[in-house]
């Protein structure tokens, strides 16, 4: 049935599968000391969140290759799309102040007065895209640690595990 939107030409279809890898830690205590420190900084950063609209206070912490930690938190705005997520605040602050230093890892967590955040906070699509660009720019992978107020910590070694089939700069060239 040529041109039929509902019936594909089954013999021309290749079903493919992409696998992502992530590690689940029962507790931050199971991470390295440097990673525990990064998560503590992300947790501390939730206190600087400005989230009067969502009440969802997100904190992020970026570990630079020289060991320095840069913190960020979500900053909301009454014109909603003008606000920015914690991860992008932290990554952009790091790159604006230390453009030459590679980012080794990003930790993210959140809290709200409305309920207990018991599952890991995972970055939104736009933040994943920014982390993807940062990896390309610095030509090295970024570890991403994700945590709630309680519960397990998730860890991925590189953004391809959160953003499969990502759009990147080479796609703009032939
Ligand atoms: N938010 C973040 O800062 N990071 C995330 O990974 C998810 C969402 C913020 C955006 C907004 O201020 C609030 O959380 C609710 O979506």
Name a few traits of the molecule.
174 residues, six-stranded mixed beta sheet, alpha+beta, single chain, binds tetrahydrodeoxyuridine, 22% helix, Cytidine Deaminase, domain 2
Write structural notes for this entry:
The protein is an alpha+beta fold and 174 residues long. It has a single domain, classed as 3-Layer(aba) Sandwich (Cytidine Deaminase, domain 2). Helices cover 22% and strands 21% of the residues. It contains three helices and six strands. It has a six-stranded mixed beta sheet. The longest helix is centred in the last third of the chain and has 14 residues, at 125-138. The radius of gyration is 18 Å and the shape is globular. It starts with 22 loop residues before the first strand and ends in a 17-residue tail after the last strand. Bound molecules: tetrahydrodeoxyuridine.
């Amino acid at each position: 049935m040529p041109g039929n939107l509902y019936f594909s030409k089954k013999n021309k279809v290749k079903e493919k599968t992409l696998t992502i890898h992530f590690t689940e830690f029962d507790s931050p205590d199971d991470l390295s000391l440097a990673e525990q420190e990064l998560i503590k900084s992300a947790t501390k950063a939730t206190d600087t969140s400005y989230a009067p609209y969502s009440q969802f206070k997100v904190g992020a912490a970026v570990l630079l290759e020289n060991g320095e930690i840069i913190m960020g938190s979500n900053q909301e705005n009454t014109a909603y799309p003008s606000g920015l997520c914690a991860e992008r605040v932290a990554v952009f602050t790091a790159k604006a102040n230390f453009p030459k230093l590679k980012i080794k890892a990003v930790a993210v967590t959140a809290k709200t007065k409305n309920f207990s955040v018991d599952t890991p906070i995972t970055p939104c699509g736009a933040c994943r895209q920014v982390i993807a660009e940062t990896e390309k720019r610095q030509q090295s992978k970024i570890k991403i640690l994700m945590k709630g107020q309680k519960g397990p910590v998730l860890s991925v070694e590189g953004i391809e595990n959160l953003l499969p089939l990502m759009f990147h700069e080479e796609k703009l060239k032939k």
